[in-house]
Design goal:
Blueprint lengths: L1 H21 L1 H11 L3 H4 L4 E3 L4 H7 L4 E7 L4 H17 L10 E7 L6 H6 L7 E5 L1 H4 L14 E2 L6 H12 L28 H18 L8 H14 L3 H17 L47 H13 L7 H15 L3 H12 L8 H26 L21 E5 L2 E4 L1 H22 L7 H7 L12 H8 L4 H12 L3 H10 L3
Parallel strand pairs: 1-3, 2-3
Antiparallel strand pairs: 2-4, 4-5, 6-7
Helix pairs in contact: 5-8, 9-12, 10-11, 10-13, 12-15, 13-14, 13-15, 15-16
Length: 511
């Protein structure tokens, strides 16, 4: 009898709980708890651990870094986190107010894998904050009795106001916690400072990653667009100014035939739950570098520049890196890529119309680089008129005919009103230096391309797929390589996933 009563009481309690939870008042309470804005819940500081600490700090575009050492069980650390995040949201992520200036990071010393890392920095209390140039943290440490150190302890950052005040003092800046994105005039003018393009290597990575994400998210890899994407990946792997993007593009190519074979095609067959397909997990320009920065291509308004600017920089950088024998391949590849994968309809059609007007093949890389420059100026001419009539331009970065006199006075023979007599030899020299040598100068200074000759040679071996052959210039470069190539090629072949790539790689020698 007592067991029956217990069962009845249990059922009664459960029914009461169900009524309580399902009541309108309770639902409103649950909504109040769970419907905070994404900005309120988001972490802006980058979580680091011993496996990615050096890579992130070595490769970040930021000028300075703050590293917080904490323990997740520490009450003071939990209470400090909202203060730290208030400052981090100014500098980190796609909505950063001041991107590329300070990388805000944190390391959990309570995680066992980080014990040695925290010991290297002599972490004596939580939270403990350090400041310095990002590169100074790489393979480094800190000792309290050091007389000189490139890394400083932040001794007065226990609130968001104090931390930001400390940062402002170090940088000579006047950032505020209430500063909002794009409501500032600190952006430098790209039209007058040729050195600004050096920072665009990060924008090239951002644009490459964004383009790849758009293709996957919009399920744009079809039987009729497959070859176009493969050709663009081959061009990018050979000539993208970012080593990370070349490496990631090669990974995509190695897996491409397995994921999207020619003989069996079904659009649904290759998609996973998020719609990105089997290639969705590949980070084409690296996994460790925090994204969300537009450095050279940052606009002064929320909806200007960014991806479109970054894509133009990528295309120009490709155009000045190809060999003469690749010029026609590069032209058709870029035209087809824009036609098939650029989702701005008016821009896509305008660009493809310009492609269609080209009557013959390009025999010189110079001719293709100048054609792309001319096409870009025609796009700017159209947008100058549209933005002037609609008031949609960026006041800090208005569209202009490129390059302006401030950057290349020798490019101008004469100018009457809007009619410019260009010195195309000077223009080509400018494009080659601007989108070639100057663009990667920051990369070289930071040692991002500092890999040995073996890795560089292996990285440049682009595996071909069934869709198209490797560009002639890249094949020729491989064919005339030194005798060391034989050993490298053997190593490369041993790493391939299937025998079909052995055949493709071997065929390069016969071209």
């Amino acid at each position: 009898m007592s067991s029956t009563l217990c069962l009845l009481l249990l059922l009664l309690i459960l029914s009461l709980l169900t009524v309580t939870i399902s009541s309108p008042g309770s639902r409103s309470i649950l909504r109040a708890v769970n419907t905070g804005t994404a900005a309120d819940l988001r972490d802006y500081a980058v979580d680091l651990n011993v496996t990615n600490f050096d890579a992130v700090l070595r490769d970040t575009p930021a000028t300075y870094a703050v590293v917080e050492f904490f323990a997740h069980w520490c009450p003071a650390c939990r209470n400090y986190k909202p203060h730290y995040e208030k400052v981090a949201r100014l500098f980190n992520g796609p909505d950063a107010v001041y991107p590329g200036m300070v990388l805000m990071t944190r390391v959990d010393c309570a995680s066992k894998i980080n014990t040695k890392l925290c010991d290297n920095f002599s972490v004596s209390h939580y939270p403990m904050l350090f400041w310095g140039s990002p590169s100074k943290f790489v393979s480094a440490g800190w000792e309290p009795k050091q007389e000189k150190s490139d890394i400083q302890v932040i001794d007065n950052g226990r609130t968001a106001d104090r931390l930001l005040s400390w940062i402002n003092k170090q940088m000579g800046s006047s950032f505020g916690l209430d500063d909002q994105k794009f409501e500032n005039d600190h952006l430098p003018s790209n039209a007058s400072d040729p050195g600004q393009i050096a920072r665009a290597v990060y924008d090239v990575e951002e644009a490459t990653s964004t383009a790849f994400e758009i293709i996957l998210e919009h399920k744009m890899i079809k039987s009729e667009t497959r070859a176009s994407l493969v050709k663009f990946l081959q061009l990018m792997v050979a000539h993208n100014p970012s080593r990370r993007c070349r490496k990631g593009g090669a990974e995509v190519l190695v897996n491409f035939d397995d994921v999207y074979p020619l003989d069996v095609w079904s659009d649904n067959r290759h998609e996973d739950q998020d719609g990105k397909g089997a290639l969705g997990n590949i980070q084409i320009c690296g996994r460790d570098v925090p994204r969300g920065y537009w450095m050279f291509c940052r606009g002064s308004k929320n909806d200007t520049r960014g991806f479109s600017c970054g894509l133009w920089v990528l295309l120009h950088s490709l155009s000045v890196r190809i060999e003469d024998g690749e010029s026609s391949f590069a032209f058709s590849t870029i035209c087809d890529f824009v036609h098939n994968f650029f989702i701005c309809e008016e821009c896509r059609q305008h660009f493809y119309d310009m492609c269609s007007r080209v009557s013959g093949p390009f025999n010189k890389s110079r001719d293709f680089a100048l054609w792309l420059w001319t096409a870009h100026n025609k796009v700017n001419e159209r947008l100058i008129k549209e933005e002037a009539s609609l008031g949609t331009g960026d006041p800090k970065f208005p569209k202009m005919i490129w390059p302006p006199r401030q950057l290349c006075s020798s490019c101008y023979r004469s100018q009457k009103n809007n009619n410019i007599d260009w010195d195309e030899d000077a223009v080509f020299n400018f494009l080659t230096n601007y989108y070639g040598k100057t663009l990667v100068s920051l990369n070289k200074d930071k040692g991002l391309n500092g890999i040995d000759g073996t890795n560089a040679a292996l990285e440049d071996l682009v595996p071909s797929t069934n869709a198209i052959v490797v560009p002639l210039g890249a094949a020729f470069a491989i064919a005339v390589a030194s005798c060391a190539f034989g050993a490298l090629a053997c190593y490369w072949r041993s790493q391939q996933k299937s025998r079909k790539y052995f055949h493709h790689l071997h065929s390069l020698k016969n071209i």
